[in-house]
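Cross-check.
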Amino acid sequence: MVTPSRITLARKRRGLTLAELSKHAAVSLQSLSNYETGRTTPRPPTVRRIADALGFPEQFFSGAEVDELPAEGISWRARTKTPPRVLDSARAAGTLAAQLYDWIDERFRLPEPDLPSLGKPDPETAAEMVRTRWDLANSPAPNMVHLLEARGVRVFSLPPDSLEVDAFAVWRGSVPFIFLNTMKTVERSRFDAAHELGHLVMHSGGEHPCTGPEAERQANDFASAFLMPAASVLGHMPAGARVDQILEGKRIWKVSAMALTYRMHDLGLLTDWQYRSTCADLSARGYRTDEPQGLRKRETSQILTKVFQGLRAKGVRPSDVADQLGVTAEEMKKMLFGLTVTTVEGGGEGSGGRRGRGALSLVR
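Predicted model, tokenized:
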């Protein structure tokens, strides 16, 4: 039996309209519409053509009903500039990753979510409250992926075909998810992770709207304060700092030069003129779109690495997991791209680390 929602999910994942799928699969538009709404069921030869056109195994379409990630819970940064099919594809990719999470959650004991819901405080105060709750004090934030995972956030990659989407976060029931674009610089990925954390803690309780320019400004301010605590920046950076001092100082907090410049201006360490002048200088040096001589070691996932190491020890390959999910191994790799590449491909060692808050264990 074919599950209608899975045809829709696979089509959105490929960024296709019904008309485009009709052309690729040689199936009438009306028939496809009926299949997706459940009015009629496609015959096996038709399912095969749809599966081939969408690049999904036939078995995917006979799985259980799939609830897409809630669209109303996602704040897209450039919603008006990004084609709807791109946003739909990214959300569909996130839905598939959530299916992988469900599979993992049945077999491993994962850290419980530990995120406060802070609807009323301003972003600066909210960042301080989260830091206090997570015992970070004013120290530079550690590996952001490790930190989020240790606090119960499920972190996955956006697929390489979703580069137009910076990142996004969403609550799926009581479980928080963050999806990162791992093709960006390490510094910008860290900022994205903190930005999406801001959405999760500030925009999930209804006190502030989840979407729009104001929500994005709040999430940016939260990320800035979370990664660069005021006391720390004021204690390390001089007023009116030169560009070379900013380039040296950004290494303390592992942020981009532009992000530190913005933060210093926000804290009154740079005048308006100094801020504009510094931004122009950094832009001329290539720091607006890149991070020359920046961090090279990407922050990877401990949880996913340990999961696949544990599975491998029991003779379970990534392709076996993909088969059970009804997706191709290539599709699953895209969920993990940049987070657990060596582990998924079976070469090298993943990131280890001592057992602690972020540890997980097999469910016996």
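The chain has a mean pLDDT of 90. The first strand starts at residue 108 and ends at 109. Passed to J.P. for a second look.
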